[in-house]
């Protein structure tokens, strides 16, 4: 296997508060290879967006990277100064946010926003930047890109705006794209267009994509591998087919049971009892044990095992096999 | 767009008519100008004759209509006190007020926006906190007190700057300017600070809070994520978005600088229009008062119109009759 584009190693993000140190991301490790889409899935507050923000250095204070390493194409980037990191943003790492309606500056034509990004990173002339901006809009499927380049954001629909946002994130040809809930704010039909666009761009450019979402359906359609996060930790990591068909962590199993999938036919959707604990009130032992149907004594005493990227798929003392999983859904 | 401008200009005329009416009816309660104009030695016949000459014996609506008809032709009547045309008197006094307003307005805008942006970007810095605390003084001290304090410190104690008047002025055509002589420039310093300080601190605090709001927006975050330079993020993306709400307030405040120059001009004995107005009130010089009020309202209405047009220039979302309609 070629060198991964992004390697995250034992990443811990912490937020100091009056009630002690919170760890929204706690010991997360994963790799993304060129041309691969890694889906990061989990409930709100599981730390999935925080991981993405940590990679591009956009953590809101007082959140900070406490330990661990982030490597981009083999270079360590988590200890760079802000000025050094700025050169990576946009150039090496592109980022797409959730809401395309608010991601674009309403007072600047989209063409200006594209050319300023291109000129910043590629150092080309104004005319060349303009041509590249048109090409970038063309690539993401904006019809009549040449005429539309002078338009303002409010003259586009939500789906078109998200395409513009993607064009902006990719116009300097980064090797990694972090897409933070890129389809959540869109209509379902537009969602499918955007995910297939991301897939196409990923394949054509050999780009690594980190797709953060809470939508298991989007993951199933788009991602190659999936990382399931729970309370700041990785619960399960593996190829998307295997994780969906035979989840090994009870949380993933519960998550699958609560997702309507056409392949599973008509059935009553399962609900995981309780809520994800707040960061300040994590239980002893495995964070999932109060909600887990398979809890044993060890789960209450020992924190869940660390998931190593290389070996085991699920961070669980008693991972499920196929038969148990079927029972859990029923 | 053009239809909009025409509609706004029409509305402006209605506003001016109403202002004129209100001002005119108020003057009837200020006092009787005849008392001031004729001395102690007067007969009832003198009073009646003067009243007829000035047209003050006619009913109120007729007086008002005549005033409007003359004003529309630039004729604001003759000052009761000086016996000269009001238009001439005001045009002699206007340069002093306009130069003062220009200097303090520029001061308020440049320093206000500059410090507002600075304190927003360096939100938690020591310098920002010092500036924010100091700015409370500017917002809360009344103008006349600031003027008197400045005079006390810089004129009386230190003796650096003059405490009253315009210094030497140079005549260029019909315009007397204080910009060309050292004493004229020195004389401008204290009054313009006094006049502009409130507006400056107000603009600064407004720009700061608007800018902090804008810096929280997604498109700023996205601009950072695209690796743009901080300078570009702050000024190209954030500041322009800050300007939309700021322009409204700034426009009205700049109008207020001219209108409320009265107090500063009184404190510094600045020979401008404001001082003229104060003296006119003491003498019940109705033509001067009316002309001044009309002038100020024309100015405010004009500023409002400019502000509305600036919105169009800045915010493309308002240009609804653009190409995509």
Quick recap of the structure?
The complex is a heterodimer of chains A (330) and B (325). Chain A is 35% helix and 21% strand.
Describe this structure in words.
- The complex is a heterodimer of chains A (330) and B (325).
- Chain A is of the alpha/beta class and 330 residues long.
- Chain A has helices at 48-56, 82-88, 100-103, 110-122, 126-139, 145-148, 158-170, 188-205, 216-222, 240-245, 250-257, 297-301, 322-329; strands spanning 6-17, 20-32, 37-41, 64-72, 75-76, 93-96, 176-180, 208-213, 225-230, 233-239.
- In chain A, helix 8 links the parallel strand 7 and strand 8.
- The two termini of chain A are 38 Å apart.
- Mean pLDDT of chain A is 84; it is low at 325-330.
- Chain B has a domain at 92-270: Orthogonal Bundle (MetI-like fold).
- Chain B contains 13 helices and two strands.
- In chain B, helix 7 (143-157) crosses helix 8 (182-215) and helix 8 (182-215) packs antiparallel against helix 11.
- At the A-B interface, helix 2, helix 4 and helix 7 of A face helix 9 and helix 10 of B.
């Amino acid at each position: 296997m070629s060198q991964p584009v992004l390697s995250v190693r034992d990443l811990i993000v912490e937020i100091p508060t009056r009630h002690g140190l919170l760890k929204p991301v706690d010991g997360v490790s994963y790799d993304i290879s060129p041309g691969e889409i890694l889906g990061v899935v989990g409930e709100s507050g599981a730390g999935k967006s925080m991981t993405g923000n940590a990679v591009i250095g956009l953590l809101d204070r007082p959140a900070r990277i406490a330990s661990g390493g982030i490597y981009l194409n083999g270079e360590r980037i988590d200890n760079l100064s802000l000025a050094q990191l700025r050169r990576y943003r946009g150039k090496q790492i592109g980022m797409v946010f959730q809401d395309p309606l608010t991601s674009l500056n309403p007072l600047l034509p989209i063409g200006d926003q594209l050319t300023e990004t291109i000129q910043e990173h590629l150092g080309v002339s104004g005319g060349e930047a303009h041509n590249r901006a048109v090409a970038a809009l063309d690539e993401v499927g904006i019809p009549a890109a040449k005429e539309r380049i002078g338009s303002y954001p409010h003259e586009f629909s939500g789906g078109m705006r998200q395409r513009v946002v993607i064009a902006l994130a990719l116009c300097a040809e980064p090797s990694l794209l972090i897409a933070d809930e890129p389809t959540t704010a869109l209509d379902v039909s537009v969602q499918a267009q955007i995910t297939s666009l991301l897939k196409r761009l990923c394949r054509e450019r050999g780009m690594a994509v980190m797709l953060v979402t809470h939508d298991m359906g989007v993951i199933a359609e788009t991602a190659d591998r999936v990382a399931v996060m729970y309370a700041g930790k990785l619960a399960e990591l593996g190829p998307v087919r295997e994780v969906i068909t035979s989840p090994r962590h009870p949380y993933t199993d519960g998550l699958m049971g609560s997702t309507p999938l056409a392949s599973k036919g008509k059935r009553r959707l399962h609900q995981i009892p309780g809520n994800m604990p707040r960061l300040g009130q994590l239980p002893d032992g495995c964070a999932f044990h109060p909600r887990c149907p398979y809890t044993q004594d060890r789960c209450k005493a020992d924190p869940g095992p660390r998931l190593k990227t290389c070996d085991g798929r699920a961070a669980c003392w008693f991972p499920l096999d196929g038969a148990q999983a079927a029972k859990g859904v029923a | 767009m053009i239809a909009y401008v025409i509609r706004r200009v029409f509305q402006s005329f209605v506003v001016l008519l109403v202002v004129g009416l209100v001002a005119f009816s108020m003057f009837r309660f200020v006092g009787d100008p005849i008392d001031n104009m004729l001395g102690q030695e007067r007969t009832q016949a003198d009073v009646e004759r003067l009243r007829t000459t000035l047209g003050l014996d006619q009913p109120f609506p007729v007086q008002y209509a005549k005033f409007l008809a003359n004003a529309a032709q630039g004729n604001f009547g003759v000052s009761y006190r000086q016996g000269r045309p009001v238009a001439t008197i005001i045009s002699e006094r206007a340069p002093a007020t306009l130069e003062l307003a220009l200097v303090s307005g520029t001061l308020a805008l440049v320093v206000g926006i500059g410090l507002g942006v600075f304190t927003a970007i360096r939100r938690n810095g020591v310098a920002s906190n010092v500036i924010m605390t100091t700015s409370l003084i500017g917002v809360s001290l009344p103008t006349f007190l600031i003027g008197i304090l400045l005079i006390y410190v810089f004129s009386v104690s230190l003796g650096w700057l003059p405490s009253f008047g315009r210094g030497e002025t140079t005549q260029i055509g019909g315009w007397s300017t204080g910009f060309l002589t050292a004493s004229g420039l020195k004389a401008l310093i204290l009054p313009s600070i006094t006049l502009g300080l409130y507006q400056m601190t107000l603009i600064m605090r407004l720009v700061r809070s608007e800018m902090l709001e804008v810096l929280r927006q997604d498109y700023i975050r996205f601009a950072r994520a695209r690796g743009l330079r901080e300078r570009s993020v702050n000024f190209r993306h954030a500041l322009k978005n800050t300007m939309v709400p700021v322009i409204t307030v700034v426009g009205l405040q700049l109008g207020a600088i001219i209108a409320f120059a009265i107090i500063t001009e009184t404190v510094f004995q600045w020979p401008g229009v404001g001082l003229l107005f104060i003296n006119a009130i003491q003498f019940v010089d109705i033509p001067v008062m009316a002309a001044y009020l009309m002038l100020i309202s024309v100015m405010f209405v004009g500023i409002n119109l400019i502000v509305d047009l600036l919105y169009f220039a800045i915010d493309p979302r308002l240009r609804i009759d653009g190409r995509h309609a």
